[in-house]
Structure formats: structure tokens, C-alpha cells
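Quick entry, no commentary yet.
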Amino acid sequence: MRKLKVATTSLAGCFGCHTSLLDIDERLFTLLELVEFDRSPLTDLKHCSPCDLGLVEGGLCNAENVHVLREFRKQCKVLVAVGACAINGGLPAQRNHLDVRECLTSVYRTVPNDPELPLPLDQVHPINNVVRVDYSLPGCPPSADAMWQLLTDLLAGRTPHLGHGLIRYD
């Protein structure tokens, strides 16, 4: 039986959603029997090859996030927005009511101008503003049990169903 290829990426977020993936604990061994990880915290690959399932955490706060997301989406047959930041901008979107130039000058006394730094966007955006998202896993972060349910449903060819108690917003 062919293993499904799974990849992950993190954009403007805290990496908490990836931690939820790792928090499935010993179930990781069961998961590894069913999937092959491409780009993920388990492999440390920086680029994604074609895969069956892509998990994206974090929103879009700069031009590099947009570029990474577009390239990632091209490689993924199914894309899941994981967590509040990917779904609605989350905590990073709290800056949306502020002027980015004013924020930068108050911190750095000038607007940083270095080709190594990605161009900040005026607002933080959810990923579905830029690419098609097939499924969403809400939470901040989603629990390990919710992550497990999503993955096992998708691996079994079922539409994910997250029953009572698996979704939290705290």
C-alpha cells in the first residue's frame, strides 16, 4: 500500500499548530506507518515536492509568506488551513488596525530597507485570501486529538468530522 505524502509549512504564527501535530505523541508511530513526511518539522526540508496533503499554519504578514504559500499550494492535492492564524489571521492580525510604517519606525526609528527582509503587507490575511483551502482545522492551537481526528479522517478518505470537545477557542 502506497503511503500518502504529507507536508507542512508555517507562515506568520507561533508554531503552536505544529506542536499539536507533535503532541499526538505515540500515535506518531501509527501515523508514520500510513504517511511519508515531506516538508515538516520531522524532516527539516525547506521545499515541498508534490504531495497528497498539505497542512498550513499561520497567516500572511509579508511577501515571503505569500510566495511560500502559493508554491506550497501548487504542490499539494489537498490543503488544510490549521489554526486561527491560517483561518482568520489570528493573533498576528491584531496589528491590522495599526499603520505598519508607524510600527516599524517606532521600533527601528526607520523603515528597515534590506533585501534580506521580506516586504511587510499592510494587513495580515488568512490564507484563503490567496489560495484555495480544502479544509480548515480551527483552534489556537487545535488540540492534538483534533489534529489526529482530522488526519485519520482524511487518510481514511472521509470528510473530517470534529465532534463536540475537539474544537476549542481558548
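second:
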Amino acid sequence: MKLLLQLFWSFFKIGSFTFGSGYAMIPMIEKEVVDKKKWFEKEDFYNQFALASSAPGPFAINTAVFVGYRVKGWWGSLAAVLGAVIPSFTIILLIAMFLTDFRGNPTVEAAFKGIRPAVIALIAVPFIRMLQPLKWYFILLAVAVATVIWQLGVSPIYFILAGGAIGAVAALFRK
């Protein structure tokens, strides 16, 4: 029970203090599950990050499911997901109830414009950390794939499937 409460509380804190997309949560999740709780090794965490990124659904929820399951099975997944979801659900509910003019409020708009640089930094930090252990040709490949997706409009799913297939074949040849 103690571990379930720790999972819930960890993701509740992360869900409460992260603005932006689920990707903005990555540094906080990494600090909590790798550095503080020691539930994951750094490389294993990045593997879970890749899995959560490629699975359908919101990234933050996928990450909570994977971390929770790894730590305490299905109940751990439930505790982590509830911890991640309850803060934002509560905030959105309160906004819907009390701030109907929220969208047009100049103070709120100014606050969100001020938050944007921090959100961009929160997303950039794990991206840069993931690049550090890679060899130069993997970074070059990632830039090439991103360019093809951006410039030609090719669906990223093709690259995800191809990367998974190539990784599986490479693993078979290593054995």
C-alpha cells in the first residue's frame, strides 16, 4: 500500500506542477523515478520513454501506466494514472465552473505567454539528454527523418514501424 501511495503522490506532484504537453513532464518524471525513487536506471527510463512516445494515447498517461506497472503491476498503473490525471482534471473543472471568460482574459493570456519559454525548455532538456549518448550518425539520421516528415509530410508512423523493425532485426543478428 505504501508503494501505491508513493506512485500516486509522485505523479500527483508531477501532474500538478507541469504546464504544457506531457513531454514537459519528462524532466520531472526522470528526476522522480530515476534520481529520487530509483525505480528505473537512466537507460531503462529512456527505453520506457520511447515506448510511451510510440504507444497510442497521451504521453503523460502512457508514461504513468508504464512506470506504475513496472513498479507495482496493474494497481501501480492505476495509482500513477490517477495521480497524473486528478490535478489537471480538477484545474480544468474549476476553470469551466468559474472562469467562463478565461479565453479572452488578457491577464491569463499574458501569463500563458510568459510560461511558454519554460515549457519549451522543459521539452528541450530531455531531448538534449537523450542525444548525448548517441553516436553522430544516429543524430544525423534523426535530423534527416525529421526533415522528411516536416518537408514532405510523410507520416511518422512509417518511420516508427521501420525503426522498430530494424531494431528487432539488429537484435536478432547480435544474438
